[in-house]
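Researcher: Please predict.
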Amino acid sequence: MIIIVAIVIIIITMTRGGSRGGLWGLSACGSDTTLPSDSLDLGYMIASACGSFEDLRQLGGSMDDTQRFKYLTSHSTPLISDVLHSHQVTKQGKSWKVSFQLQWLQKFPWLSYSNVLEGGICRHCVLFPEKPNRGGSQGAKPGVLVLSAYQRPYTKALGKDGILVCHERSLMHRHATESADRFRLSYDNPSTRVDSRLLKQQEQQAEKNREILRQIVYGVEYLAKQGLPFRGHREDKIDFSVSSVNRGNFIALMQLLGKSNTTLQEHLLHCPKNAKYTSKTIQNEIIHIYACKLREKLTSKLKENDLPFTIIADEVTDHHANQEVLSVCLRFVDLTSPQDPHIKGVPNKSYQC
């Protein structure tokens, strides 16, 4: 008889364990930390944490914002017809059952019922966990509603020292609620997030820098096409706020463009001297880039069409500077207009020997 009772107890225990392990898909502690994607029950997450706040934080950290928002706002809710967890209460020789009340979910917006754990849990504290302050809830050990479901005693849920009321007043819960509110606000309005603000500022600064560099390149291109000299006698100490002093064509052109472009004007007047991009070094670099692009375009056409070309060079002596000046000119067939091909000459820069 004793053996039969023992077998029945083992079967009941295995059945209960199997109902959670097989039906709900719960795994052993630490064996699997993957949360089901088709369920909105945080009981899976609490069960995987195995009573560890660190594991709970790691599980929350591995969750993306979309899934976190769904758990926070659309957690699974039991139906009125569902049978919720209950326990036996005995008082003065009388016994009755007390069950989890659905009206608590309306009274406490942070409270949810987990079908997996068969009890109440705090969504805010599970998703944004902090170690609880001990002695905060009468009759509840630290971690109830967070690391384990609230299953009893339901008779002490409400009231001045009720478990749910004390949990709502606890410092741990207030911090978690503040974090949840900030997360919900940032999720609904991504522009309010700190990283979004920083990224937006970087994008605005990058676009501003592009506009400034674009105007500087336009100035170099204009002077180069017109064959005008760039620099004046002295450009080492340029004050863009003073327009009466002639510092050369490039500086004068930048001042002129700045009058109709507030971004360029602010840059010339207030930008640090080592970041103005108006020095002779930058001017020469832009000209060199133009020359490389032009040379690449011309040679690519000659190579593609196998066109003939000639190079003409001439040399002259500069007696005042006591130097030899070499001029190089490239002549090729210009096919820009196929109806009217003609010989085009491109003078190269002069080399001083």
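Model: Residues 1-28, 135-140 have pLDDT under 50 and may be disordered.
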